[in-house]
Structure formats: C-alpha cells, structure tokens
User: Which sequence fits this backbone?
C-alpha cells in the first residue's frame, strides 16, 4: 500500500468538500480525495438557488429564514443549527459572489433573489424573495466557482481515487484507504483530521434525481466503523421529477409561476396547499394513487406555458406581462433543455409530465454544529473526524429540508468543517496507523474482484431499488416496511455469498468499485427501512399510513442506529435542540 | 425494438491494439439513451466494459464520447434519433490517450484548463454595508449577461476533442480552455484582463483556432464556442473587453 501524509484529508469534492478544502488549506496541508473529477460532483445538478436573507428585493431577516427551516423540518430540526445556517448564509453568499460566482442581478446590480417554497415573511406569512440564483444552474455555478478557487489556491487533489475505508486506531481516526481507479493500486492516506463530504444515497431508490455516484460511501464507511447513523428514516421525495427518468425539475419552476395539474385538469395544489416538498410529494402521490394521473398514468402535469401561468397570475391579481416565452427560456433554461432532451416536450408550449422522485437524505453521519462527528446520544465528539453536506446530519434539515437549504448547508457547514479540521490539525499529532490497517477492505475488494457466484450485482441493485421504491417511498406502513427490511437483508446475504464479477483486472475496474458501492447502498437501505419501521408517527418526509399523526410526546427526538454484531441493528435516541421555536402543528 | 451497438474496446492488460466489439440488445425503448444501452451491456453482458458517467442528466460532463462520429454526451442521446433499427457506433473521444475502452486520460485537458487561470481575480477590497458587513460587488444585468453563455461549460471536453487543430497539436489550449478564459475576460469584475489576453496570444493559444467550427455543434450545453473564441481574438487585437 502506498502511503501519503497530510494534516487534513477531505473525502469528496462537491460543494461541502471544496469549501472545507478552501478554508483548511489556508493554514494546514490538505488533500482532497474524490472518486470523480471534482466538477463531476452532484452539487452541480442543484438548480434553483441558495437562500440567504440579504433583503435585496424586499424586507427579510435571518431569523425568518431560521424559523422557516425549523418549521419546514417539522420541528425535528436542531434549532442551534438552523440559526447558524440562516445567520451565516448571508456572509457565505456574499463570499461566493466575491469568489466570482455569477449571480443574476437586480436592476441596482445587487444579487437577485426569488421566491422558493416554504420561505416566508414571518409577519405576513407571504412568500419572500430569499433564493439567490444564477439562472437555473446555481449548483453548477457554485461547484465551478469553488473548484476555480481551489485551483487559484493550489489545493492538492487526488482525482479518481475512491475512498473505501476509514482507518481507526481505537476510538481515533488515523486515515483513509483509497483505490486509484487508473491502476487499481491501494493508497493509505495518513491524516490528523478527516472530513467526510461524500454526499447522499438516492441510488437506493428506483426513481431518483441522484447521480449514479450517489451511493452513500462516506455514511456506509462511518457506519461500518462503529459510528451511528442519525434520522435515516427521513429521505426527501421531490415532487417534480421528470417522468419517467426521475430527473429533477427545479422547484424554481413553480416559484416562477408553474402550476401542477391533474388528469381532470384541476389545479390540485389548491386543495392541499402544498408549499413544502413533503406535502407536495404526498399531494401528487395521492392524486396518482386515486387515479387522477394524466390519462390514468403515473404522472401529473407541471404547466409552465405562458398561457396558463398568466391566467393564474391574473386571477391572483398579479401583473404577468413579463412572463413571455423568452422569459422562460432565460429563467428556466435547464428545465427547457431537460424537457426537450429527455421527454421530447417543449415546456414553453406544452406541460411537462412529472412524478415524485427520491431526492435528498436528511439523515446521515451525526455531527454537532462544528461538523464534528459525534458517537452517541450524549454528543460525545470523535476527535479529528468531521462530516459536512448531505452525508452529515447536523441536524439542520430535521424531518424535511426546505428548498435551497442544501446549498446553504454545503457552504456554511463545509466552511465550518474546514476551519475546525484545520484548527484540530494544528494542535494534534498523527495517530499511529495500526499494523493491520487496510487488511479488511483489501480482502473485501479481492473477494469482489474474484467473485464467481451466480448473481450479477445489477440484479441485486434492481431488486433493492424496486423494494425501496414500493415499500420505503412517499407513503409507508409497518407491514410493507417489514417486508422491505426482510428483502434487503436477503439481498445483503446474497451480496456477501453469491455475486458474480467479470472484470478481474486492475485498470479502471469500475465493475469492482460499483459493486462495492452497491454494498454501501444495501447497508444504508437496511438502516433506512429499519429506522422507518421503528418510528411510529408521521413527520416531515416520513409518512406512515398506520400512524398518520405527528407524535411530539413520544417522537420529538432523533433516531440513532448502530450496527450490533455482524447483522443486528440497535436503536438509540438523541433529544432535539429546541430554543425559541416551540413545536406547533405545521399548517401551510 | 432491437439495437445494434458497436463499441471501440481496448484493455491495456490484454489487448495489443483497440478492436470493435458488437452487441445486440433486445427490448429497447425509443427513449432509452445511449448511456442506458452501455449500462445494459456492462451490467448484463460484459462487466469489463469501462466508461465514465455520473449524473446521467447532462450536467456533470463525465460521459463525452464519439457517437456515430460525433462528440456527444451518452446520457443526452436518445435511441429514437437513429430510426426504427438503430445502429450505433461508440468510441472514445479523440486526441487524448485511451486508458481503457471509452475512458481517456483527461489530465492533458485539465492542464490546459488550469493554464488559462480559470478563476476571478479582483484585489480591490469588496464593499461594506451600513452594518459593517461585507456586501456583494455590484454588476449590471447587462454586464452579467455579457459572459452568461460561457458560464454554462461543464468541462466535458467534447469541443476540444472535436477540434482538428487540437488533434494535430496537443499543445494547443483548445476550445474548452478558451471558453473558460472568455468567461473571465468578459466579466467586468475581473482585474486580470491584460495577463489573460497575453496568455491566449501565445503561439499555442487562441491563434491555433482555424475556425473549423467543429466545436460549436459538439457542445452539449449549446455554447456558441466558435463565437466565444472569435470574441477572445478580438479582445486580443483591441486590448479591450468592450470593443
């Protein structure tokens, strides 16, 4: 194994990883290890915007942003984290502008802001313009800008190095093991501080907005090393996935005036008032289940055409003269391209077919507000280990994430992770690497490479994805969740004993690494189904048909799940941090 | 429907030189993408097939390849484009060394990207608001619009590897790097204009472009690449960003 040494190692090169790298590299030696070239990271797919109470377009306050975040999270959000998110978002967005991010502008030349679901003026309850945007490719511009700054600051990258394990020495992290894709060699990165910024695991589901690479590697690696996973039952289904691929149509499309219409031509949003993602997803799921899809199929329409949008805006007494085909082309360029390319539909003239799609993990590796990974319900910190972005659970999103807050999360907590990891690196010494370091993962990779059973990994992947889609989706119930858990466990046994691999080579062997990723997905799917079965209430994105109400008396707490023995799972809980916002029924 | 797909294969551990392998796939849908077919081959027929892909929705830039002779993103090409009995030929993008099958060495490409200093430089302290906190630099809607097109670049290399000048001379920075340079040259917040123009006036810079025009249709993001290059040429000639 080839050994490298850096003060701080950052695993993953999306928004959180690059932000951490920029800050940590100011004072200590840093390497970013990423299984993809950094600009391939899934941050680039985020569309609509990044919220910050700049007040550029109308009155706004970070306290309103914090409250909206807590309410959107159905009061499972840790309120200290929500306050930090909302407060630090302001300087973070300004800093992105200074780095060169090409935000859209107001007439005065300030950063332009638009409305986004769930973001409100807390006094009037009306939508507020808080989402800063760069056309509808805000995530792309954030990713590009941060990578540009990393080049400017000479950050060291190990591109296409796939991290497959964490080295622990007792309770302390000592480094990570990575496979170099190009030649298959194994590398050991010895570090004082390690930041996981590896993203989510939407690929557990069949219909998802997520990239193929969103396989939850960091969360699975942490879990395998004794770290619990928090609130895994909360996975967001975005209401507007393009049918049938699941690609995300930005919420900004509805922000600009797009309306949801069912098979009877009804603007059904009115009936549910769904302004937050879980409510809108459920509304669409109900429409579909009750047979009000378009032509009886599994989709409804998202209508962006000027004719429809202007009609509804006029009904609401708004001037909509500006809403022309050219306006849509500019403001929703990506959406237009998606519709034309993947559905063969021009959103300027025809409505888009949409369905809910698995989108975002609220749960993940438990951390405190400094991005330090915590090991148990007493918030015991694991010194030197950090997590930020979608793989982490701060918990700033609670039971459901507000639109645009994922990008805020990356920037605010990525920065905190980088700063804290560097600070720790400056004061700490290297933890010795145990003599058997990497042995276990090496033998697991060898097992996969030489696997000669009878089931191709993709058969297991498909089965896992359909199981999660059918039984651990927008609606859940105890019977189905138990069925899902049993199935996933069977698949895990099959994965461990009977897979078949073709590629025995070393050069760019993506079959072995994809298969290893499938192992991560199966592990996270199991924890998700287990956590969902365990939580007998409905809250945020977790909708139980057999327990329809939110139950603050018994369930206003975070779930922690640990691996217990080889195959068992153990559950524990952690209180929610409640400060000024007392839980209330969530009415929109 | 049935689709026939020919793939240029090469495994350096086994093959002396590249060869064509043909696969026939049944039960294809007109809305299947070329990437879906490659996945079916890799997952159902031959796991050794190597390709890069990630988002599968045209934004990550991983899966640029030569599809029926044109540089495309495999995730953005639908089967129905090829008629009732699709025959598709897939090979790695040209001008970069092949590592395995459809995977090429991207390092020379990214080296050119880094060489144009693809980052904003502005040494003037940013404005401060009445509350003492930093504020954004102002930029007019028109000034922001000036470089909008080139901010769309996803560094997929489809343009650069479709360029005969780049094939002939790998030292040429190539269209993608010029697009990236354009994004900063025409951003009025940037203060490195002269240095940027000097860099691109290098013999291996913008003048190697012979306006063959391959790059513009190759761009999966619809960037008017040739136009961006000609604007950079004009900026070099005039020494200004607003000519």
Assistant:
């Amino acid at each position: 194994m080839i050994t490298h040494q850096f003060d701080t190692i950052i695993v993953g090169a999306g928004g959180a990883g690059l932000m951490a790298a920029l800050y940590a590299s100011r004072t200590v030696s840093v390497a970013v290890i990423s299984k993809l070239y950094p600009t391939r990271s899934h941050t680039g797919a985020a569309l609509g915007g990044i919220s910050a109470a700049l007040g550029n377009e109308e009155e706004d306050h970070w306290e309103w942003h914090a409250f909206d975040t807590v309410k959107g999270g159905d009061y499972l959000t840790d309120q200290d984290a929500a306050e930090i998110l909302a407060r630090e978002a302001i300087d973070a967005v300004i800093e992105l502008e200074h780095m060169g991010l090409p935000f859209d502008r107001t007439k005065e030349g300030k950063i332009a802001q638009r409305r986004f679901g769930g973001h409100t003026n807390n006094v009037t309850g009306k939508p507020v313009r808080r989402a800063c945007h760069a056309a509808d490719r805000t995530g792309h511009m954030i990713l590009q800008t941060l990578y540009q700054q990393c080049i400017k600051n000479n950050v060291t990258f190990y591109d296409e190095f796939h991290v497959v394990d964490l080295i622990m020495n007792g309770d302390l992290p000592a480094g990570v093991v990575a496979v170099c894709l190009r030649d298959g060699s194994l590398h050991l990165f010895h570090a004082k501080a390690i930041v996981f910024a590896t993203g989510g695991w939407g690929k557990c589901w069949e219909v998802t907005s997520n990239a193929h690479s969103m396989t939850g590697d960091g969360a699975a690696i942490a879990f395998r090393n004794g770290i619990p996973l928090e609130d895994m039952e909360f996975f967001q289904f975005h209401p507007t996935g393009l049918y049938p691929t699941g690609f995300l149509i930005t919420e900004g499309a509805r922000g600009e005036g797009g309306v949801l219409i069912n098979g009877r031509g009804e603007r059904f949003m009115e009936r549910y008032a769904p302004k937050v993602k879980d409510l809108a997803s459920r509304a669409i799921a109900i429409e579909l289940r009750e047979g009000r899809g378009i032509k009886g199929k599994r989709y409804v329409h998202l209508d962006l055409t000027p004719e429809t949008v202007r009609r509804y805006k006029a009904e609401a007494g708004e001037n909509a003269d500006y809403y022309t085909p050219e306006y849509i082309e500019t403001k929703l360029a990506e959406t237009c391209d998606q519709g034309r390319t993947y559905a063969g539909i021009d959103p300027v003239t025809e409505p888009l077919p949409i369905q809910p799609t698995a989108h975002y993990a609220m749960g993940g590796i438990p951390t405190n507000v400094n991005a330090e990974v915590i090991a148990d319900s007493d918030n015991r910190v694991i010194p030197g280990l950090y997590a930020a972005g979608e793989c982490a659970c701060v918990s700033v999103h609670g039971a459901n994430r507000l639109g645009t807050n994922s990008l805020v999360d990356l920037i605010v907590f990525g920065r905190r992770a980088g700063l804290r990891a560097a600070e720790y690196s400056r004061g700490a010494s290297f933890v010795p690497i145990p003599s058997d370091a990497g042995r276990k993962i090496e033998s697991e990779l060898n097992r996969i490479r030489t696997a000669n059973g009878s089931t191709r990994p993709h058969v297991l992947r498909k089965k896992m994805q359909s199981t999660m889609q059918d039984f651990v989706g927008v609606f859940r119930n105890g019977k189905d969740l138990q069925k899902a858990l049993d199935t996933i466990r069977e698949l895990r046994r099959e994965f461990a004993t009977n897979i078949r691999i073709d590629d025995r080579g070393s050069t760019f062997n993506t079959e072995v690494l994809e298969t290893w990723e499938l192992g991560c997905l199966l592990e996270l799917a199991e924890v998700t189904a287990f956590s969902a079965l365990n939580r007998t209430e409905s809250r945020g994105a977790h909708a139980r048909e057999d327990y329809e109400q939110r139950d603050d008396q018994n369930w206003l707490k975070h779930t922690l799940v640990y691996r217990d023995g080889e195959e068992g799972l153990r559950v524990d809980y952690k209180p929610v941090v409640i400060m000024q916002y007392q839980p209330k029924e969530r009415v929109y | 429907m049935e689709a026939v797909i020919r793939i240029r294969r090469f495994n350096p551990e086994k093959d002396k030189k590249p060869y064509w392998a043909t696969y026939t796939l049944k039960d294809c849908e007109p809305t299947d993408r070329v990437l879906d077919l490659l996945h079916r081959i890799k997952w159902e027929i031959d796991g050794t097939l190597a390709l890069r892909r990630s988002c599968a929705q045209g934004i990550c830039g991983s899966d640029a390849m030569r599809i029926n002779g044109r540089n495309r993103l495999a995730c953005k090409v639908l089967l129905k484009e090829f008629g009732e009995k699709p025959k598709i030929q897939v090979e790695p993008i040209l001008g970069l060394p092949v590592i395995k099958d459809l995977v090429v060495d991207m390092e020379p490409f990214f080296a050119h990207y880094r060489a144009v200093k693809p980052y904003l430089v502005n040494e003037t302290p940013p404005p401060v608001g009445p509350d003492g906190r930093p504020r954004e630099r102002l930029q007019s809607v028109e000034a922001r619009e000036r470089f909008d097109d080139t901010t769309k670049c996803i560094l997929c290399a489809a343009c650069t590897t479709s360029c005969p000048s780049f094939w002939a001379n790998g030292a040429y920075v190539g269209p993608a790097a010029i697009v990236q340079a354009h994004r900063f040259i025409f951003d009025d917040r940037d203060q490195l204009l002269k240095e940027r123009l000097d860099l691109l006036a290098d013999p291996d810079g913008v003048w190697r472009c012979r306006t063959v025009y391959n790059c513009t249709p190759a761009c999966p993001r619809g960037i008017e690449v040739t136009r961006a290059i000609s604007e950079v040429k004009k900026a070099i000639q005039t020494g200004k960003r607003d000519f």
About this structure: Chain A is about 35% helix and 20% strand. Chain A has a mean pLDDT of 95. The first strand of chain A starts at residue 2 and ends at 11. Chain A touches chain B through 62 residues (CB under 8 Å).
